[in-house]
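Board work, copied verbatim: Serine/threonine-protein phosphatase 4 regulatory subunit 4
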Amino acid sequence: PQPDMDFGQSNLFGYIEDLQELTIIERPVRRSLKTPEEIERLTVDEELNDIERALYLLSSGQDVQGTSVVANLPVLMRQNPAETLRRVLPKIREVLHVAGVEMQLTAAVSFLTVLQDESVSIHTYSHSFLHIILQNLEHRDAGVSNAWLETLLAVIEALPKETIRHEILNPLVSKAQISQTLQSRLVSCKIMGKLANKFEAHIVKREILPLVKSLCQDVEYEVRTCMCRQLEHIAQGIGTELTKTTVLPELVELARDEGSSVRLAAFETLVNLLDMFDSDDRRQTVLPLVKSFCEKSFKADESILVSLSFHLGKLCNGLYGVFTPEQHLRFLEFYKKLCTLGLQQENGHNDNQLQLQTLEQEKKYISVRKNCAYNFPAMIVFVDPKNFHLELYSIFFCLCHDPEVPVRYTMAISFYEVAKLLNSGVYTIQKELVTLLQDESLEVLDALVGHLPEILELMINGGENSGSESKLLSIPDLIPALTTAEQRAAASLKWRTHEKLLQKYACLPQIISSDQIYYRFLHRMLTIILTNNVLPVQKAAARTLCVYLRYNRKQEQRHEVIQKLIEQLGQGKSYWNRLRFLDTCEFIMELFSKSFFCKYFFLPVLELTHDPVANVRIKLCYLLPKVKSTLKIPTDKHLLQQLELCIRKLLCQEKDKDVLTIVKRTVLELDRMDISLDAFQKRFYENDLLDQEKERQEHLLLEMEQLEKEKQQNEGRSANVNDKMFEKKRKFICKEDKKSKLVRSQSFSTQALHPKYSNIDKCSNKSSATGYTSSLSGMGKGCMLSFSDDSFRTRSTGNSGNATFSTSSSLIASRNSFNSADQKNNGNKESQSRKMSM
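↓ predict structure ↓
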């Protein structure tokens, strides 16, 4: 029982404080309410048209109303450009002189939108809008000035050269002078960077470069920094020769500037222009500067350390051709030093340094190590992947075990790039893959999982000498790491990470054995479907489970999983589980052949027409067209009759209006559908080929299982012969499995036909000349192969399709040798078709 409420003095004061907090929250709400007088002032005559209303609000309205008119300017320009330019725009120009910051920012955005909408010609725009933009460039508020500058830079792209010269370039000469304000000179720097790409090199040299040199030597460090960052754009406009003679000397001088921000801008511009310099310039000018930056970064100029670490990969590879072996080694050691920056103090060598280290320094060191992780693939190229284990593995280990999450996150993102670069040496980073999979941060796991299938595939194919299927068995703790990662993602609130991980785990059949998937992953997927509360996670688990079932090689395991799906999902007590069963059936139809679905899931799906929950019946109705598309006539005639019977019952017995509406709509859609015959039809040719390929691969997996059983039975008797035959067939089946993708959503028409389909292709060519239906009418009565493994039923394929189902004459013999058991139990039609094919 709950304790009685205590009305003591202390609790009473607590209640009073809570009430006071509520009144404080309520005050802003009361202030926002308008009085009748204020509402009267905000009221506008409804009979005014848009232009008149805009003029009225700009003249007599409040600031918020005027701002709304300015924001609506692009709409007015589209509706009535002539009247807007003649009456509204002059009024806006007048109001902007005394407008506040909000209206100024809104006007800058609206003017840019008018330009992008192309409501008027560029000539009209420059005549009407350009002067207003230029007038507001030097606004006292820096944010407003930058907003108008961004609009002007976008306008410059569209303006003709003559307009730019007269309206922008000529006034720029006076605005860039030292006598002008700081804001005016900063704006001039950015405009010149934009103009350099609009004029020819000789015009830039004659009219812009003198201003550039003047601003590079400005007394204010902000102006020198701004101009330095524009030198990259100016260099692109004037070409390589002028850059070497004009821009490079300015950069060298700015790199020795007294202002740290100027030196930083010079360094970054130098790195970005590296491709424009020849080897002599790099060796004689750039390399000494870079060495100077590196030496000073640890001593007197730590401000450049973060930028240096970010650009180091680009810098090392850009200067690779001019490095001596000694310089190459020195820069590599410098990179290694940056990778462990800030970690040495943890060893306790210098307690005073640890005490003096500020929070800002710690953040800076974390950023440096993060940038080193970002540049790690570039450094592998720098040292050559062959030397990775000797030169960089220890650093790779340190970065993957870094105490800070941003560093490990960056390593997880770049792990795939590292694996690609190492190629055959990818086995050296297997332990770090397991480490990152077990990382305590879900952000790191999420970054790694993005390319997990590709990484595992590289792990498989990386070793040239490994020929076994279970190539990842040599990686210790891989499977426990994968299961632990999934459990940690499931226990967190980040369901998107969990969904992503389950989707990527669909690659595991290509990586590890079928038994390992069955015992460690498959049942876990079923548990997620049954217990998880997040729909996208449940669907991801359902699809991955279907993929695992698709590549499972043991009949007993397949039957067990199918039975659990039907009993625990399709016949589950919770309607939510029955909905997930229908989702799972969609994935079954996508991944498996039509015959597989019809044999195991067709009737359990139809049973849900009697479900007591309307939502289940609605979802089933939406699924019925797909269900019908899996049927083939005459083989599945009895299933078609069952489907029609269920539809009739729904039409006659359904009481829910919503369900009945959807049933009627579904009936019309089903009536318009054509059912494919056992024989190939021109309308369904591509789908039939795709289904035939799925069915063939299902048979190949069954043959693999049969061969394994035969090998176990015949151990000791002619072992060498059996081993050779088994290995030959296993390689063929594995090769066929690799050709098939886990997801087959793409149209088969975009793919080239496999050579084994040549017989089918010939049939299609014949049929086009003699009538497709008549020439292929016998295909539905063709060869019906059966297996002692009862998990798959072969569809009638036709004699011309036999080559697609059999790998060799020995495989055909092996099929025929163990199909007698099924023949006794099948229906008359199936037995007749088998006799005809035999």
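The first strand starts at residue 632 and ends at 633.
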